[in-house]
Design a protein that fits this description.
mainly alpha; 2 helices
Length: 78
């Protein structure tokens, strides 16, 4: 049972990290492009924004994932 909890916890952390990195990457590249256009050093500006956004996204996904899953279950079960 204890090993099952560890696997579940590990899955949640890895899943959250992948979700946070991919979504924050896509959002920051879009917002950076909208704000600046395709300028010199675009990648540098985007990468800085991404490095600031990724940890915040990770925390947000950790906080909101469970309530969203519960809401989804309720919506689909009704």
């Amino acid at each position: 049972m204890d090993q099952m909890k560890r696997k579940s916890y590990k899955f949640r952390i890895v899943n959250t990290a992948i979700m946070a990195v991919s979504l924050s990457g896509m959002m920051t590249i879009y917002i950076t492009f909208i704000n600046l256009g395709m300028v010199d050093r675009f990648v540098c500006y985007w990468f800085k924004a991404w490095m600031l956004a990724a940890p915040v996204a990770f925390v947000c996904v950790m906080i909101i994932a469970s309530p969203v899953q519960q809401l989804t279950r309720r919506l689909l079960d009704s």
